[in-house]
């Protein structure tokens, strides 16, 4: 599979799906759901220029420290000594892929809506914590080193999850009073289909093809454990 990918006989999308499968990840288990990277960092421009390296996220860093400002807090957390010596050191107390995160992204489509409601004791979580905007979700990641969610494959092929086609009452945001309905898209996306088209194009772009292996090292490769993981700020609880 690596050889096929290197020879460009399979796409970046196919390669990531196959890696996820080999790593034991599956659509049948929310706790081991396939994981995909955030690949862009420009969610505010009117047009998306895929020839400009500045629009892409730095794939060599875990999402928690893509914003340099978070690195200090992450290092401090690792250097905290557990007085009982029971807990191994870690940079992040949460994970880049978990069941709650999958339900968070897919809340507008069944069976994830029902699963989310069950998780929240029979009701929707408060509107401010819902997935309501792609630009706002990215900004929250940049501002908060404790939020380290990567993406799921649906961001590259499934426009329906961005629309509230079932008309669920997801509440309204506290400060702006905005009603949470369809997911707010980046300015450069004219529709959910347009977002998926451009996002998939970005995944297959020259920049991502040249740097994807750096992210794979963090998630599936040698930077998951040991001194290399510590150096890469990539140790999870």
Automatic annotation (TrEMBL):
Domain of life: Eukaryota
Residue span(s) of domain BEACH: 1-237
InterPro entries: BEACH_dom (IPR000409), BEACH_dom_sf (IPR036372), BEACH_Domain (IPR050865)
Protein name from the UniProt record: NBEL1 protein
UniProt-recorded Gene Ontology molecular function terms: protein kinase binding
Pfam families reported for this sequence: Beach
Gene Ontology CC, one term: cytosol
GO biological process: intracellular protein localization
Keywords: Repeat, WD repeat
